[in-house]
């Protein structure tokens, strides 16, 4: 259940709960305890969304996090159909973030750098991608890259979150395309993903300001299994 906007007493407990469940999930991945991951992962984004709502976060922010929750749950089965549905949910979350970022445009040079990286990475993936995934994954990658670039509208914290989101999904894509992957592949996917969502949330809520919930609403307008 998402608390009403601006519930200062719930802020710290919800943040502690999110960080605790995140630690359980990451430890389970490192230890190879799949049950810990399966139990913890569905709780992560609802807790972060509740934390954002308790601090007076905007509706697009809470919606983006809940779209992430839906994507997390759909990716758990590991089937291609579930993967596509999960990707659709994450795409909806990126649209919510883009709405949150408003009309502000970060530096064009950063956008150009992201575009170059995107083209090079898609070329790297293409030989190993199943044919039916080429178009949806390309479209999703364009949306994700736009979100990562535009996240700079909320400052450095959110910009780092956008970059880490891109990195996390790039690690997933290497698995889909059967490309070389780092050791503890799933651990690094989740670590970068959780850091990304938290940093985007923190940026949307105004960074470290209002960490106790004193001023709700302070934010700047503007394998497949894992």
Structural summary, described in words:
The chain has 226 residues and is mainly α. The protein has one domain. It has eight helices and no strands. It has helices spanning 8-31, 34-54, 59-75, 80-101, 108-125, 131-150, 156-176, 185-204. The chain starts with 7 loop residues before the first helix and ends in a 22-residue tail after the last helix.
Secondary-structure map:
Layout lengths: L7 H24 L2 H21 L4 H17 L4 H22 L6 H18 L5 H20 L5 H21 L8 H20 L22
Q: What would you say about this model in short?
A:
The chain has helices at residues 8-31, 34-54, 59-75, 80-101, 108-125, 131-150, 156-176, 185-204.
Helix count equals 8
Low-confidence stretches: 207-226
Order of helices and strands: HHHHHHHH
Helical content (DSSP H or I, runs of 4+): over 70%
């Amino acid at each position: 259940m998402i608390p009403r906007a601006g519930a200062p007493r719930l802020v710290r407990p919800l943040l502690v709960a999110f960080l605790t469940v995140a630690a359980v999930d990451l430890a389970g991945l490192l230890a190879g305890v799949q049950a810990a991951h399966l139990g913890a992962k569905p709780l992560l984004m609802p807790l972060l969304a509740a934390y954002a709502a308790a601090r007076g976060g905007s509706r697009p922010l809470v919606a983006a996090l809940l779209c992430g929750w839906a994507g997390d749950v759909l990716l758990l089965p590991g089937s291609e159909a579930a993967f596509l549905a999960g990707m659709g949910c994450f795409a909806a979350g990126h649209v919510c973030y883009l709405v949150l970022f408003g009309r502000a445009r970060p530096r064009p040079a950063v956008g150009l750098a992201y575009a170059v990286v995107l083209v090079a990475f898609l070329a790297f993936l293409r030989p190993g991608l199943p044919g039916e995934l080429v178009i949806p994954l390309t479209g999703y990658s364009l949306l994700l890259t736009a979100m990562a670039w535009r996240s700079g509208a909320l400052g450095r914290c959110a910009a780092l979150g956008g970059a880490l989101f891109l990195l996390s999904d790039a690690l997933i894509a290497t698995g889909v395309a059967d490309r070389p992957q780092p050791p503890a592949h799933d651990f690094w996917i989740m670590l970068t993903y959780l850091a990304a969502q938290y940093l985007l949330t923190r940026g949307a809520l105004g960074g470290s300001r209002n960490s106790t919930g004193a001023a709700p609403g302070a934010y700047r307008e503007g394998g497949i299994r894992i």
